[in-house]
Task: inverse folding
């Protein structure tokens, strides 16, 4: 119960912290890719739907689209990779880099597509090459630290 | 030990399916969304207490900026009526704002050319008692005011916002019109709403002189109404639009061959903010006994405090409100539009600034040249960089045709058009210049919003 309380209290703030990171002059990266990578490769499988809800709440704070759009934008990339978790070596760094790169492209594209389909245009649909490149570098690195911090650490899958 | 649980993530797919249901029925799930996202703002609200006292002076308008609103209203009214027309004798103009496009179920009512074919005004039927059915904009015929309880307004009552059927509505009457060719007698024709898939909103149905019509070799000719008598009588001389010809151009040996002629209206419903109705002496029996006309809608502002969301430099702000605002309500500081509000639970709301928005806006440009009429347009923000916003113009309104459909968009001040009940026309946005590289774009100076700031959130008195 405590870990869930912490999750819904703190996980949404991750998206605001990512903006703060950029505001202080550090290179911008796709925080959605970080969240999705954790859910797809390391989070407790049965908890993923509710973890996703907390993250979608966070994305709704910084983006104009409605909450279900954010559930889909973050959830679809996770849903693609999650069934493959048993065969993928999640701890292998090149895999993390490749997935972070793919997610950093897929998330803005999905935002744009769903925004058009459901008439909820969003500024998050713009693909920025610099953000994609920095995501490939920063996401795996930040994930190492994030997995050791509450509330993320409390939802690590025990293998 | 190897994980032997099934790989198929049923729970996650169920959540995605739920999200799709949520999108299909947004009204049902709106309270849930308000609670969830509102809960997400609680930490930020706690931090906002430390942010300091809200200020108002930061966005105070200069006297010149305040005077712009008066100038806008005066010029809108002056240019909304035709300069001189016999049919206006004995009637007085009633200026109405457009509050929304008419809907059929969950979708906009679409007519000829795939364009919206109904609009709702900011006056109720009861308030428009004594008005003719004719709805105009400058010298342009816009449509016809409907009667509650009949036709397309069968479900409306006297106290509902008045519905106007536009000329491209499938049920709109055919119009007797004439096409003005230079140095030739007008060519008489009958115009009616085109099909949804057609390339323009109106099409020519019958010609008085088909042989002459088949030899039309240039488009962009103005089409005006001719006087018609009937239930929806139409005076002569109102502009319907300009021609668009489908056919084969003349080659070296032959002559042009016209397959069809369409009429492209000069008024786009999506860009329309203001129309004029005409109140005469005679009162429609259906409306007899209704209360007299009231002033336009009054918007009751509620006070709110705007806070910066940490890191949300892209125009997202937290509002701490005393009353739950309407979705899409305008947040305003001293007459200047800051952004649109999304209500949440727990006294919180989120605001997206104009610069960060990517929706399509109905806007009004007040040109610097005092003789020029305000230009109503539809545009969307495509980029924002610091205090400058780049807008793409999607449609604009032309009320006079002098050979060219396109008007030159000059420098001036940009205001909101009508963007719903709680985001009315006439809210100042910023100084606007045409993009020197591409005239389809406008560059607007929009000062950045910084919290904490005391703001007003507009809400319709009726909506409360």
Result:
């Amino acid at each position: 119960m405590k870990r869930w309380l912490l999750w819904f209290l703190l996980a949404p703030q991750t998206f605001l912290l990512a903006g703060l990171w950029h505001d202080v002059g550090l290179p911008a990266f796709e925080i959605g890719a970080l969240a999705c990578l954790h859910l797809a490769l390391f989070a407790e499988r049965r908890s993923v739907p509710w973890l996703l809800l907390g993250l979608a709440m966070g994305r709704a704070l910084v983006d104009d689209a409605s909450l279900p759009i954010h559930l889909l934008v973050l959830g679809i990339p996770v849903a693609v990779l999650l069934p493959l978790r048993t065969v993928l070596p999640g701890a292998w760094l090149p895999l993390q880099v490749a997935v972070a790169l793919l997610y950093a492209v897929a998330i803005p594209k999905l935002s744009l597509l769903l925004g058009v389909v459901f008439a909820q245009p969003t500024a998050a649909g713009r693909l920025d090459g610099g953000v994609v490149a920095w995501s490939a570098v920063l996401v795996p690195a930040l994930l190492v630290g994030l997995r050791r911090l509450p509330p993320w650490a409390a939802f690590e899958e025990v293998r | 030990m190897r994980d032997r649980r099934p790989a198929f993530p049923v729970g996650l797919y169920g959540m995605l399916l739920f999200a799709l249901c949520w999108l299909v029925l947004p009204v049902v799930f709106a309270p849930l969304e308000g609670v969830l996202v509102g809960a997400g703002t609680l930490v930020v609200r706690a931090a906002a207490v430390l942010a300091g006292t809200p200020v108002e002076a930061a966005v105070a308008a200069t006297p010149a900026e305040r005077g712009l609103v008066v100038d806008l209203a005066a010029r809108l009214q002056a240019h909304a009526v035709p300069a001189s027309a016999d049919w206006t004798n004995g009637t007085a103009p009633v200026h109405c704002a457009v509050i929304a496009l008419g809907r059929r179920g969950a979708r906009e009512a679409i007519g000829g050319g795939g364009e919206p074919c109904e609009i709702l005004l900011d006056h109720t039927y009861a308030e428009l008692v004594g008005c003719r059915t004719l709805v105009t904009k400058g010298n342009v015929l816009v449509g016809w005011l409907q009667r509650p309880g009949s036709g397309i307004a069968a479900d409306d009552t006297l106290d509902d916002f008045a519905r106007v059927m536009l000329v491209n509505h499938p049920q709109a009457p055919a119009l007797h019109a004439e096409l003005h060719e230079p140095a030739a007698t007008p060519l008489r024709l009958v115009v009616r709403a085109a099909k949804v898939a057609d390339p323009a909103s109106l099409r020519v149905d019958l010609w008085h002189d088909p042989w002459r019509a088949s030899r039309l070799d240039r488009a962009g000719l103005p089409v005006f109404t001719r006087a018609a008598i009937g239930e929806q009588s139409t005076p002569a001389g109102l502009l319907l639009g300009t021609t668009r010809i489908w056919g084969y151009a003349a080659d070296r040996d032959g002559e042009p061959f016209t397959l069809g002629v369409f009429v492209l209206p000069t008024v786009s419903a999506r860009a329309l903010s203001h129309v004029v109705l005409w109140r005469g002496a005679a009162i429609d029996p259906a409306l007899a006994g209704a209360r007299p006309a009231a002033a336009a809608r009054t918007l009751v502002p509620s006070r709110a405090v705007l806070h910066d969301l940490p890191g949300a430099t892209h125009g997202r702000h937290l509002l701490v409100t005393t009353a739950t605002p309407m979705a899409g309500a305008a947040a305003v500081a001293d007459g200047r539009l800051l952004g649109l509000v999304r209500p949440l639970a727990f006294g919180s709301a989120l605001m997206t600034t104009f610069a960060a928005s990517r929706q399509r806006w109905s806007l009004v440009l007040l040109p610097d040249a005092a003789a020029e009429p305000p230009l109503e347009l539809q545009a969307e923000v495509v980029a924002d960089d610091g205090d400058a916003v780049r807008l793409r113009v999607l449609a604009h309104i032309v009320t006079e045709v002098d050979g060219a459909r396109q008007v030159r968009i000059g420098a001036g001040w940009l205001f909101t058009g009508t963007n719903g009940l709680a985001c009315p026309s006439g809210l100042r946005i910023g100084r606007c210049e045409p993009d020197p590289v591409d005239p389809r774009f406008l560059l607007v100076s929009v000062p950045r919003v910084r919290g904490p700031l005391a703001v007003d959130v507009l809400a319709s008195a009726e909506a409360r």
Remarks:
- The two ends of chain B are 61 Å apart (CA to CA).
- The longest strand of chain B covers residues 375-385.
- Chain B touches chain A through 46 residues (CB under 8 Å).
- The mean pLDDT of chain B is 83.
